[in-house]
Design goal:
By secondary structure, this protein is of the alpha/beta class. It has one domain: Aldolase class I (TIM Barrel, Alpha-Beta Barrel). Helix content is 45%, strand content 13%. It is built from 13 helices and eight strands. It has helices at 22-34, 54-68, 83-95, 113-125, 137-140, 146-153, 168-177, 192-198, 212-223, 227-236, 238-243, 251-259, 276-286; strands at 5-9, 39-42, 74-77, 100-104, 131-135, 158-163, 183-186, 202-205. Helix 1 (22-34) links the parallel strand 1 (5-9) and strand 2.
Length: 291
């Protein structure tokens, strides 16, 4: 198991010139190390991987790996719609000491289930790092079927899946039909507790960028049998979670962090600022908490 509990889908901070802000990245890593985050996922969707160059991704992954220094797992987002590039990024991440890989389904290609299987199989054959599949059909245009996930789960270093399909029935089928060592992580902050109840082992969380301890506690209260406390945390943050996805991620989480004076910069185009009405909803939900 790569990790259990709350893995933060870490944002990538930019400076006023829209370059990666490593000083701020350093602060964010310290924040997570001090607040019980169980793993850091770097250069994923929330980290704006689609607008980072391959060289920027390599630099950011290397920086985070070296800064964390094995205190908690660092999982590198190395997915691509080009299998060759995904292999290159995965091999690089292994060479600099990443603990695992998060690999999104190939987007835009809309490949067949056999194409998905062969894509992941080829990547797995070129690295010994543990791989978490990332299924998010609302963004990629393709869903990994349960049958394909079962086949992929039999490959030794494919160890789990981040499930962001929002399909509880699919998650149930994955958990029922894969080996107990195959880990399911919620990809949706509003479904952490429901998926834990089915047998998932945690979440890869956007909310954890600002509430790392609370997302960790949501998971570990459940693991420790404190269901009521876990439920309270899930419900307490539900309105905020919804407002963090009122526009496409990571626009709202960066707006939230800037509102809270984290100063993480803007998103890169084509992601743009939120409109004022949506900002106001997000800000009002943030003001409910003493931050």
């Amino acid at each position: 198991m790569l990790f259990k509990g709350s893995g933060v889908a870490l944002i990538t901070p930019f400076d006023k010139y829209n370059k990666v802000n490593y000083e701020k990245l350093d602060e964010l890593i310290d924040f997570h190390l001090k607040n019980n985050t169980d793993a850091i996922i770097v250069c994923g969707t929330t980290g704006e991987s689609s607008t980072l160059s391959n060289e920027e991704k390599k630099d950011v992954i290397k920086y985070v790996v070296e800064k964390v220094n094995k205190k908690i797992p660092v999982i590198a987002g190395t997915g691509s719609n080009n299998t060759k590039i995904a292999i290159e990024m995965s091999k690089y991440s292994q060479s600099i000491g990443a603990d695992g890989l998060l690999i999104v389904t190939p987007y835009y290609n809309k490949c067949t289930q056999e194409g998905l299987f062969l894509h992941y199989k080829e990547i797995a054959n070129n690295t010994s790092l543990p791989i978490i599949l990332y299924n998010v059909p609302s963004r990629t245009g393709v869903n990994i079927s349960v049958d394909t996930i079962i086949k992929l789960s039999k490959i030794d270093n494919i160890v789990g899946i981040k499930e962001a399909s929002s399909n509880i029935s699919q998650v149930s089928a994955i958990l029922a039909k894969t080996n107990k060592d195959f880990c399911v992580y919620s990809g949706n902050d509003d479904q952490v507790l429901p998926l834990l109840s089915l047998g998932s082992v945690g979440v890869i969380s956007v909310l954890a960028n600002i509430f790392p301890k609370e997302v960790h506690d949501l998971c570990y209260n459940f693991f420790d049998g404190n269901l009521e406390e876990s439920r309270k945390i899930q419900f307490k943050y539900l309105d905020l979670i919804n407002s963090l996805f009122v526009q496409v991620n990571p626009i709202p989480i960066k707006e939230a962090m800037n509102f809270l004076k984290y100063d993480v910069g803007n998103c890169r185009l084509p992601l743009c600022d939120m409109d004022n009405s949506q900002k106001n909803i997000l800000h009002q939900n943030l003001l409910k908490f003493k931050l």
